[in-house]
Amino acid sequence: MDQSLKHFLHDPRLLLDAAGEGIYGFDRDGNAVFINPAAERMTGWQASELLGQQIHRFHHHSHADGSDYPACECPIYRTVVDGQPRTISNEVFWRKDGSQFPVEYTSTPIYKDQQLIGAVAIFRDVSQQRSTEQALREALSRVNELSEQLQAENRYLLEEINAQWQDSDLVGQSVIFQQMMQQIELVAKTDSTVLILGENGTGKELIARQLHNRSQRCNAPLVKVNCAAFSASLIESELFGHEKGAFTGAQQRRKGRFELAHKGTLFLDEVAELPLEAQSKLLRVLQEQEFERVGGQQTLKVDIRLIAATNRDLWAMVEQGSFRMDLYYRLNVFPLRVPALRERIEDLELLVAQLLSKLSQKLAKQFTGISARSLNRLKSYHWPGNVRELQNILERAAILTQGPIVHIDDMQLLEAAREEGTEIRTLDSEQKRYIEYVLSMCGGRINGEGGAAQRLGLAPSTLRSKMQKLGVNRE
């Protein structure tokens, strides 16, 4: 072995100078008696400036937050006093230029002839380690968030897939249907809140999907909440999410539908069923675009477009005190009425054709059409359950049908009417009832802008002829 290397290995001073950690030696009074080059590099203080000084007042004088750090509390000086070794990992040293860096250090007592004569402090800069740890924590947090998001989206996707067969594209050639589609085209391009109004089974969710798919948010999620499907105690958790332990059974944090719909569209179906407390929180989100999870303190911001739907008269609920007036005006920015199936009975053939195509896929049968007699029966029916009822009747008939042509008899329609809890009425009685309804909405006016003829998509003379035939006397 080279003699110079042997000399180096036997010279403690040379070894201490070569160490990568900073090393300080202290006497019993806490004054520096040794400082190695690594300590100089890390702190910016030269040994000539610190030897014989109490180093604490140079670069250990304050905590990380800038608060005072008395020397009597310093672990290094306490080791000098009581001879107890200490390991510290949550403090900072201050450089000569006034900046700070996180350190881990040990203070070890030095004895000679069993007498405490001082201490040595060995420290290292852990900035890179802390940065790496922080990056790992952030990455893990992000992975957890993405995992949680994926689980929530998968759960939501399964709910959507289970009901997807029920959805048919919006089809129709009637005037009233085309007028609705024109309104959809206009409002879809905006971020305005839309309130979809219509009877049960008219396809309000399909309208919401059309609005989303034709909007600038079409590449983001459309998230649906059926407000009638949750109890008053659970609806807030469903909408806004909850933290772990927020309530009995909340075993883990869960994101709400508002978070899932961020940058996309949130569809609140059956919005009239929201309890008053949830209405208040919903109003705040719509006004401020922010909320807290149930049981949480952190304020979360979201960017969503809201679409709501109901089959109830919200204004009547406002007058009864069961629906907030301010929320009503927030939701009723652009009301969009979906016509009942009996109002656009001329679209029935298109709907039947499309639904049979879907049922062919679902039931693995090849349906080429429906018998003329069955179609006439369908056209004469009053459809209290609207398109949803049509779907159910066709599926039931398709299951029973052996050949390519679907047949529907009167008994099936009678059974459907019993399920809906109504009596079968004639098409003429339904037309009369609806014309009377539209006339009342128009103040009895037939002609002109906003008149009943325009709303019904009929010529005034045609409407008068129908009124005379059906026995509608008022104008």
Number of separate strands: 14
* Proportion of strand residues: 15-25%
Low-confidence stretches: 1-10, 161-168
Share in helix:
40-55%
Gyration radius from CA atoms, angstroms: 38 Å
SS field, number of helical segments:
21
Label the structural class: alpha/beta
Distance between the termini: 119 Å
Largest sheet composition: 5 strands, antiparallel
Mean pLDDT across the residues is 82
Question: Tell me, what's the shape?
Answer: elongated
Strand order of the largest sheet: 2-1-5-4-3
Which properties best describe this structure?
alpha/beta; five-stranded antiparallel sheet; 14 strands
Write a brief structural summary.
By secondary structure, this protein is an alpha/beta fold. The strands form four sheets. It has a five-stranded antiparallel beta sheet, with helices on both faces. The protein has a five-stranded parallel beta sheet with strand order 7-8-11-6-12.
Verbal overview:
Helix content is 46%, strand content 16%. The chain has 21 helices and 14 strands. The strands form four sheets. Strands 2-1-5-4-3 form a five-stranded antiparallel beta sheet, with helices on both faces. Strands 7-8-11-6-12 form a five-stranded parallel beta sheet. A two-stranded antiparallel sheet has the order 9-10. A hairpin with a 2-residue loop joins strand 4 (100-112) and strand 5 (115-125). The longest helix is centred in the first third of the chain and has 37 residues, at 127-163. It is elongated and about 120 Å long. The model is unreliable at 1-10 and 161-168 (pLDDT under 50).
